[in-house]
Specification:
heterodimer; A: 208 residues; Four Helix Bundle (Hemerythrin (Met), subunit A); 81% helix; B: 611 residues; mainly alpha; Cytochrome C Oxidase, Chain A; two-stranded antiparallel ribbon; 58% helix; binds protoporphyrin IX containing FE; binds copper (II) ion
Chain lengths: 208, 611
Amino acid sequence: MDDYTWKDKEYLKERMEYTGIHPQKFALWLAMASMTMFFAALTSALIVKKADFQTWENFKLPTVFLYSTICIISVSVVLHLSLVNYRKANFTAFRLLLFAGFVLGTAFLGLQLLGWNELKEMGMPLAGNLSGAFIYLITSAHGFHIAVGLLFLLIFLFFAIRSRKDPIYELKNIANPKRQFNLELLVSFWHYIDIVWIYLYVFFYLNY
Amino acid sequence: MHSAEINVNTDLHAHGHDHGHDHAHGHDDHHHEETWIQKYIFSTDHKMIGKQFLITGMFWGIVGGLLSVLFRLQLGWPNETFPFLETFLGRWAEGGKISNEFYLSLVTMHGTILVFFVLTGGLSGTFANLLIPYQLGIRDMASGFMNMLSYWFFFAASVVMLSSFFIQTGPASGGWTAYPPINGIKDIALNKGSGLGFDLWALAMTLFVVSSLLGGLNYVATILNMRTKGMTMMKMPLTIWAFMFTAVLGILSFPALLAGVSLLEFDRLLGTSFYLNDIIINGNLLDYKGGSPILYQHLFWFLGHPEVYIIILPAMGIVSEVLSVHARKPIFGYRAMVISIMAIVIIAFLVWAHHMFVTGMNPNLGAVFVLFTLLIAVPSAIKVFNWIGTIWKGSIRLNTPMLFAIGFVSFFISGGLTGIMLGNSAIDIQLHDTYFVVAHFHIVMGVAAFCGMFAGVYHWFPRFYGRFMNETLGLIHFWITLIGAYAIFFPMHFMTGLPRRYFSFANFETFNNFNNLTEFISVAAIVVFFAQLVFIVNFFYSIFKGRKLEGEYNNPWGGTTLEWTAPVERLHGNWPGEIPTVYRWPYDYSVNGRSFIPQDEPLEPGEVEHK
Ligand code: HEM
Ligand SMILES: [Cu+2]
């Protein structure tokens, strides 16, 4: 089977110039459509429930959620800068920013936990009124996506830091479009879950 | 988009050995030998993954079918005992009689397994994987790694689902639709199947959804972005259209199931009351306030109805292909077929509440759903018309794949007609949750989709194994299945008022007159089950001992599509040399005085391209 070579790369290049997109990036967009349906299902469940439930209790959103919103926006900014630096082959800045993104992302999860705590203290435990339960439900569903994002970030970080002193590795980085492409996918994913949170925050804000 | 962002060197061809470590150099210069594990277990090759889905699907098919034989024993002979059942099932069948609770587990798991693990995972997973790259002239899926994960999530889901048979309280028993409140409270004193069994069900379904999403993203991305030169959308075989829209349906509807099940698990494990309200058990009022089980039904059926099309569309695609090839005629109304598929996909999202006519919904809202439900019959009917048009006056070869394809059309018509009856809310209120519904969906979905799947297996078996399946065994399999399946499900239409999911009707005087009929159905069900074993035997026998394809020429049916231009031998990358370029549509049968013209043959001078 080895007389076979991947000479069709030329052809694929042509294909992509035609469709203008890498198929894996396209797959990520489809995944975003799917995740959007997931959050749409959850939030429409809230709307339906709110409409038919007599004893729905409104309350003021935990203030922590405002901070977590700021936090996650900064994750997006930091990761974007990290990608920019990677493209410019500033690997030190890239690594630092990637690390900052990881820390901020983890902080976001911590803030969400504080938010839950605040909810509980204002008399809205998980198993209490449905209005509160929806917040726990939706934030944990979103938090799960964040956790997955953090996992991939960690893997990236691991490879970025592991061989930082190795000049050949740095060279390979410059010459390796696959890594840059994967980084682009990862950063896009983070932008996406960032936007989802902003949507959720506004949604909560309007409904509570 | 600027070309700086388009990285051709990235891993489009997903070699077995790419696990995320860095390759600075391209792939050309290093071809490792694949290890056995890379080749057969953790393969990223679409052909191997397709076969993995097929074999796993066949395993589940046997398990799911066997479960139905068990509950048919109870239904057909409610007063008999079968001591061998106790030997196998232990306390689930004490004294040789299946227990009431286990009966409910059996129907629940039968439905779940057949709907999701066989007719979704098994059917789409198999044929989308085997055919998309081959029919479109592609080396492999957009991401081989994701494709591999898709199978292994399916496998994990299978392990979890299967494990629920071996726990103390038994598998889930609240129906394949998993309605609350019965499934919403984790109380085994109330119902054993609502214990750990249900949590395993939910976990398995979550893994399953992840699997089908990973697969679906890949299929759509591959179809839209990676087709070979000349393969415009309107030159794609109908199989591909079907797989693509199946995947789109899944991508957009499975999340609703995940959402529904998440709320359910919150209720079960964390004490919320999304679906529960004022539940009284043994005189005690439980602490749940404000939820509504109807909310679950909306979330479930928002997936549930598209799901039935996720099952039937791939079968429709396969059947379109098989009918055209074996009737030696171009498909009738290609464009109408494509538009019908699109129409079905759109309307499929707008009809879910026809499963909920009796939930006390506003009749005006119900009327809207009646309207859309009846509308969906239109594209379905167009497709039926075109299939008949395709074989009309064709030079039909009545071999096994063709017979199963014709069987599909027959079942789809029979079951579609009862669908139109059910779609009218005024009629459905009488028929809901009776055996009439059971008859409807088994014929239109269950049996029809199986026929499509068998047509596909018999048709493409020579392509993927280099040998034919045994024709005599195939014919035996077909005729018993056709006659047997009608014998099982046709009488159910006339068992008026008989409620589904009942363990026994002994306490209902009125239903005594169906006793002979239920017994007859049970006999037929057992016969049909054993006929499927003929298929399994034929399948494995033929892999090793079947009649071989002869010579270089490996296009036994005279098909036009690209999969027949690739060697049978399993190559990484499918074609040893260049990928063929496409010049014509996929249905040039009996034209220009020739039996068929392959898609990669340039147009003759002066020949007009089919539009
Ligand atoms: C002609 C178009 C069709 C119409 C108008 C239609 C209508 C309906 C209606 C109204 C019901 C609800 C019955 C009830 O529970 O009271 C139903 C049930 C069902 N239909 Fe159809 N149907 C059609 C085609 C199909 C197709 C093509 C499939 C699958 C491939 C399918 C699969 C099912 C299933 C699985 C159920 C029962 C689910 C359950 O309750 O367990 N139907 N159909
Ligand atoms: Cu439906």
